[in-house]
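Duplicate of #3305? Posting structure anyway:
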């Protein structure tokens, strides 16, 4: 019943809140399905495509599978708990895992929006279920469960590249366990995983390894003088996204898993070592650790007797964020409010740009920033958008030529509407962001253009 309440609230939020620029970007992906994209694999685009097929090109359509997948993933975790934390009485342990996970901001907000982390968390959850069944099964069916483990790990990788850390951790654990080395089913995981990720590998192969190079290039960053700042941001981000009490439960669970549950400990610690090492030289985005949250919820329930206050505090904080998101009861200026800055005023601003383009005789919008270009594409289908960022050149689509375009570029200083040709996006008659607007010739000759 509590999970159903969560789903209803998240569906309401998904339908009510305008899309963020990143979500609009993934919607653009969904209109050009392919094996991969410059930033991420294809799964988020596929999920958006399925959602918009059912609910249309609306915010709810884009986000539909988020709340639904969270319900199905939660069901998987209930049963994963039976096999992976046998020291706790089941099904109570499974219910606690699900409540703890759903009380985090990472899941509470993440499942109501659509990002690559949304399918990633779902597939990690069902992977844990299949892994538990594979380890527990002593019959010929274990081969099927090991195969499904490879399938779900592959789909997790097709959602976000960080899933490979779980694959490596599971592989190392299995190689160190004699009974797993002798289990034929365990050796099925790697080839099945490899088959499942072939669309992403093939797309990268045919596009000069663009996405692998972008994401892999992060590992070369090195700013040790800022390591303390990056580490504090990493820890602070997790305290915020897990919520404080649940973060403490996670830490206790990780500490206890070293003795109580070696498998889950390895699945958490190896990725954590990678993230911590990266934080010594560059910033680790807080959401990168999303793949660990279902596993952390399992070890937390194994380590603590009661999760009540963690769940109550987490749900309370999440509901406060929901309230601020929907009703803005704390009156932040739109330009300072992170939610309004991303979501407010796009439809009216887009209509004003259409009018401006028609007045100036422009046949396209010319935009270099991917979020702005995606919002303009999502909020109208009258004037095509020409993206000049490298991302757009990697879409597999036919290029078109436009004689004249309206260049739209964000200004990094405040301006009045109409000042020096600028146009401002507003919320409740207050400025959110201002943009330079001017006519340019031969927009398809600028950098790496494509038609959205």
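Output from current build:
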């Amino acid at each position: 019943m509590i999970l159903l309440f969560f789903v209803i609230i998240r569906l309401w939020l998904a339908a009510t809140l305008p899309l963020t620029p990143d979500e609009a970007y993934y919607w653009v992906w969904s209109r050009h399905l392919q094996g991969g994209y410059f930033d991420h694999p294809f799964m988020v685009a596929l999920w958006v495509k399925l959602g918009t097929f059912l609910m249309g090109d609306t915010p709810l359509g884009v986000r539909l599978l988020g709340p639904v997948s969270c319900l199905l993933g939660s069901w998987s975790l209930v049963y994963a708990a039976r096999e992976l934390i046998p020291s706790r009485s089941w099904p109570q342990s499974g219910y606690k895992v699900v409540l703890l996970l759903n009380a985090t901001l990472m899941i509470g907000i993440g499942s109501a929006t659509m990002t690559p982390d949304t399918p990633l968390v779902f597939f990690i959850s069902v992977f844990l279920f299949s892994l538990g069944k594979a380890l527990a099964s002593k019959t010929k069916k274990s081969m099927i469960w090991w195969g499904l483990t490879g399938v779900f790990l592959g789909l997790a990788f097709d959602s976000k590249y960080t899933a490979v850390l779980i694959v490596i951790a599971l592989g190392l654990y299995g190689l160190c366990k004699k009974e797993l080395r002798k289990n034929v089913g365990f050796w099925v995981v790697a080839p099945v995983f490899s088959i499942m990720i072939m669309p992403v590998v093939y797309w990268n192969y045919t596009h000069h390894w663009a996405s692998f190079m972008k994401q892999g290039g992060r590992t070369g960053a090195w700013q040790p003088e800022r390591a303390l700042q990056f580490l504090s941001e990493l820890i602070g981000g997790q305290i915020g996204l897990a919520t404080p009490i649940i973060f403490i439960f996670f830490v206790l669970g990780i500490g206890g898993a070293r003795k109580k549950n070696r498998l889950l400990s390895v699945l958490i610690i190896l990725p954590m070592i990678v993230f911590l090492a990266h934080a010594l030289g560059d910033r680790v985005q807080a959401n990168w650790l999303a793949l660990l949250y279902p596993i952390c919820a399992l070890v937390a329930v194994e380590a603590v007797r009661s999760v009540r206050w963690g769940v109550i505090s987490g749900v309370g904080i999440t509901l406060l964020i929901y309230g601020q998101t929907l009703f803005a009861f704390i009156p932040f200026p739109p330009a300072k409010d992170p939610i309004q800055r991303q979501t407010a005023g796009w439809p009216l601003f887009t209509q004003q740009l259409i009018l401006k383009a028609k007045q100036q005789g422009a046949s396209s919008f010319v935009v270099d920033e991917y979020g702005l270009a995606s919002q303009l594409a999502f909020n109208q289908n009258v004037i095509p958008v020409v993206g000049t960022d490298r991302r757009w050149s990697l879409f597999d689509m036919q290029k078109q030529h436009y004689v004249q375009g309206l260049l739209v570029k964000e200004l990094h200083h405040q301006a009045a509407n109409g000042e020096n040709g600028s146009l401002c996006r507003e919320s409740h008659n207050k400025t959110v962001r201002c943009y330079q607007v001017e006519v340019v010739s031969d927009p398809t000759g600028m950098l790496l253009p494509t038609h959205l």
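Confirmed duplicate; merging threads. Residues 2-325 form one domain. The first strand starts at residue 365 and ends at 367.
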